[in-house]
Structure formats: C-alpha cells, structure tokens
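Known limitations

Files may contain more than one protein. Parsers should not assume a single record per file. Below, a two-record file is shown to illustrate correct handling: read the sequence, read the token line, then continue until end of file.
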Amino acid sequence: MPANFPEIWLGRIIEHLTNADMATFLEGIPEIAADVTQINAGTLTEQNKIYVPTTEFEVDVLINNTTYPIAVQEYEDGTIEITLDKLQTKVTSVSDDAVMGASYDKIDQVTKSHIRAMLVAKFQKALHSIAPAGDTPNTPVLVVTGGADAQTDSTGRLILTYEDLVAAKRRCKGFGQCRLVLTNDHWNDLLLDRKNFGNQLVDYAKGKPNPVVAGFEIHTYEGEFPKYTALGVKKPYGAILESGDTEGSVIFVKEAIGKKTGVTRQYFDKPTARGQANELAYRHYYIAVPYMARKIGAIR
C-alpha cells in the first residue's frame, strides 16, 4: 500500500462505522450529549469515558395548601461514569503484490472484514449490556410458558405465545412505550401464531414502521442474544449456551438507554524489505447501556 493511502483507509472505516445500519433496535436512541474523555491516550491502558449527570428528583406538589412559608425541598442530582467498550480487530497482513495501484474499490474490499467484525461485535455487546442481569421489580425477566396448553416446538422448547407477551406487558406497567427485540426462535413462534398476529409480522418489511404487538414495538436482530441460566441469571458476554440455558428476547424503553461513539484509531505498518507486506488493524470505542437498572426486561 503506498504511503499516501492510510489516511483514506481511516476515513473510509469511520464512514462505515457511523453509517452502517444493521441493528434497528438502536435507531432513535440519541448519542449521549457528553464529551468523551480519553484517559492514557495512545497507551496500552487507554480508555474512553463519559460522565453523565442524572437525577431522580421529583418535586412535591401541595394541594390546597394553607401553611406558609412553603417548605423548601432541596434539589438532588449525581453523575454516572460510563466506560466505553474497546473493540479491536486482529492485525491483517496484506502483501504488496495485492495492493499495488490500489483503488477506492480495493480499499472497500480489504477493510470489509474489519468493518463487519466490529459492527457485529458492537451491536451484540450493546444488546447484552441492555438486557437485565436478573429478575427484579424494575427489571422483569419472564419465563416463556407456551400458553395455557404449554405448547412446545419439535425440540421440546416452550414456545412464546401472545399470553406471554401480555404477561410481560403487565410486568412492564409504567415503563412507557417498550421495544421488544425478539430472538430468532421467539420471532418464528409469533410467525406461526396467525390467529393473534395475522400478517403483521409476515408483511413487515424494511422501510415500514415496526409492528406493535401487545403494546411492544417489535424488532428482530440476526446476531447473538444474551444468555440466561435456568435460574434466570444473565451470563457474561460471549458465554456459551449450555444445557438449561436459554437466549432472552430483550425489552427496553429507548429513553432509558444511552449510546456513545468514541475514538476510532487506525494502526498501519508499512512493508519492510524482508516481509513486503502491509499490516492493518483498527480500534473503536462504543457503548450502548441503560442509564440505570430500570425500564429494561427480558423474556427467556
């Protein structure tokens, strides 16, 4: 790769990272309005952090008050520190023979695997971060029942039914408009329930509004979903699905989620006389996470 090409490569990778549309469940969630603080920039301990002000303050309202002076209620707030996830690609070696006279199309071809890998990783990690750690009053994690007849599929797995969605909606009372990101199995379960859903899901296509079922704005995602143990505890990101584990469809209110894109760095080594190969890698910082453990849920 000629020496004047690295800047173009970096510009191209940033364009793809910020414009690629592969996870509809993150659409409409604005970037957190906070500056990214780079800590130990350019070192092995580099971090990207943001600091978000937060408050649960609600002013008390007096009705037909006759007591004066009115009591003072002190305003309270705080700050949340959020560390962005660091995504790094492994180094790719490209021989000079492959890039001599490289064109713009060649740049797209070589960087495609880096772009896809980072996008898949950042969206899967985002969905995992949004999913609750376990069942609480503010973070319901419901178990699929298969309905009144405990219906199962050919593998013996209990299927997601309309009754399960209603139960989830009941547990999410007071949350507001919720998004429901369905696992592939749960999406297929609803596709087969034509009685309750008709063609709402069958006719859904890109460019149309997401269907609303049982009060949930329905989304799908082709990547991996968070995994829960038989006791309903979320497993660490990247954990393997073991016997008794289930993938969980994720529920959240978009206003309860914050996302932030940090720094993107390119690492490029020029060819040497011995190796005659270019080495390229990227580092990208990103986070999508609930501000607090509330208004999120799962169906497993």
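...continuing to the second record:
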Amino acid sequence: MTRKLIAGILLLASQVSFAQSQDMRKLIDSEFQFAAKQYKVLDKNIPAGLTPQSFNAKTNKLVTYDIKWWCSGFYSGSLWYIFEQTKDAEIKKDAEKALKILEPNQTYTGHHDLGFMMFCSFGNAYRLTGKPEYKEIIQNSAQSLATRFRPEIGSIQSWNKNKYFNCPVIIDNMMNLEMLNWASDNGGDARLKEISVKHANTTIANHFRPDFSSYHVVDYDLTTGKVIRKATWQGAANTSAWARGQGWALYGYTMMYRFTKDTKYLEQANGIANFILNHPNLPADKIPYWDFDAPFMPFSNRDASAGALIASALLELGQYVGTHEKNAYKQAAETMINALASSAYRAKLGENGGFLLKHSTGALPLNSEIDVPLVYADYYYLEALARYKKWYL
C-alpha cells in the first residue's frame, strides 16, 4: 500500500469521525434544548413540597412522592444538568426551588439512599455554583448515611429489618458511596471514605457471580456477620441478572476507581461491562430488557432507565482504559444515546407528563412502574449526554 493511499484512507477516516462528532454535538445540544422546554411543562404539574417520580397515562396524572422517597434528588439534579448546558434562568430557579424542599433530608437516616437524594441534587448544585451552604448540606448528609454502616458485616445496611430480610444490602447501594467519597475528599471525615471502601470490597466478595453478574440483595446475620441468602428482589429470579442492578454495579465500581485508583475496582467495572455488552440477550439498540434473563423475549419490557444508566457509566469507564476498550465503550454508549433520543423512547414536547424518556421498568415482579417514564431515567440520560459532550467532543 502506497503512502499516498494510506494518507487518503486516514483523511477519509478523520472526515467521517468529524462528521459523526458534529452529528452527536447537534443531537446533544438539541436534546438539552428540548429538555429545558419539557421540564418547564413538568414543573407546572408538581404539587408544592413533593417531588416527581412518574406519569400515569391511564389517569393522565403525575405520580409524586414526599422528600423521603429515594428518588427525590433526581429532579433537581436533572434541572442542574439542563441549566449547565442551556444557561436557562427559569430552569435554574426551578432547580433551586426543588433543592429547598430537600434540605431536611440531610439528617435523615431511615434508609441508604441519601446519595441519590442529596448528592445528585446538592452535589450538582455545588459543582455549578460553589455555594458553601450546599457543601455543608452534602457533608451533613454523608454523616447521616454513615450511621447505617454495620461493622459486623463491613457494609452499609440498605433497608431496615423487615419480614423478608434481616439486614439487607442491595447493589444499588454502590451508587450512594459517591457522596461518602466526595465528602471525605473535600474536607470531611476520612472515615467516610474508609466506610465506602469497606462496603465496596464486601460487595465484590458477596454480590457477584463468576461471570460478573450481580445479585440484587444480600441478606446478612448481624450477630455472626455471615450471609444468610442472596436474592434478586426486582428481577426475574434469584439467579437472574436484573438489568438496572447490573447498571448500578457498573457505575458504582467505575466511580470507586475514580476516587481510589484501586485497580481491582477497574477490573470489576470492566468485567461487568463485558457481561452486559456481550450478553446474547442484549438487543441491537443496546437498551436492555428489564432483566437479562426475562421471560417472553423479545416481547418482554425494556428498561430505558437501565440503558441511560449503563450509557453514562460506560462513558466514564472509557476514560480509564486503553484505546480499544475506550472505543468499544464509546460506541456502545453512542448506540444507546441515539436509541434513547429517537421517537422509540423519547417523548414529544408536552407529552409523557413532562418527562423525557418513555419505556422504563421499575419493579416488574412487584407490578410497580411498568412501561412508564421514571425520573432517574431522565437524570442518567442527561448525565450521559453531558458526559459525551465533555469527554468525546
């Protein structure tokens, strides 16, 4: 092959890459502009003091919860992502209003989801504004979350004891470690990061199968510290791979590597990514079914929230790996983003109760939130868009 031919091939490749980048930039900017308009529709329907969760198309009513609900921080967090990209003053005002009602959560210790509630919201707010009062709330919230650490098992207890579980720890809990790590690294107690590391290590030891798929729940005996049983509460079966749970795991260990640079977390994240992306039941658009082992494929419900979450995690994981893996993760995330931005998943302006994405699945075995918009699907979709723009354009 002549040098001239090689040069021509390289030039063509660079031109294709540039065109693709321009297409993605246009798509991402368009999606944020749409999100600003759509979330103004959503804001008008939220009762005072509550946070939006979903939309019931049958009753044409918004589904909302009080601030103790685990998803309460996603709405404000989404608004901050939208404001960051659009500089829309009305969106910022709505974000600040949503933050205000969350403030009492900084002392809440009733479950493990303080990271979702307070870091997705106040974390993004502090990142963009630098207001010291936001930082103080994050630090207080991290201390509240740390009260749920159980030294006997080396983990943060997720839910309180109930008729089903003695001391349950769920894979979702990996996400809440981000707030502990950040608080510790930004003037907080060093013990917070120690707790985070212990929890992450215990989760590697007990939550995962040899193929890097994860159980949803591990139940512990607080007296002996031993595992009582392993289960998958929101998945198809105890032995199945609940899709969003795999996303929590992927995101969680990628984040742990960011904060610690411990290569075992990077290896764990890569293993989980390979499980997801090479799974024979992953559809062509890479938006997973609600469980990788769901019955009745290909007619099972998809989970757009899992797709958005996984896309966001893959984009960060791509920052820490070699060129081959980075390109593979970027391409997979790009496929997911394009799918979610299409009419197959993304709502039209004024529809879907004001939410961006359709076709998420909350907890199918519990007959809860099936084929509906979910606030955290929007949050991780917006995060994925912002990450792509920051790191790949």
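Parsers that stop after the first record will miss the second one. For reference, the second record is described as follows. The chain has a mean pLDDT of 95.
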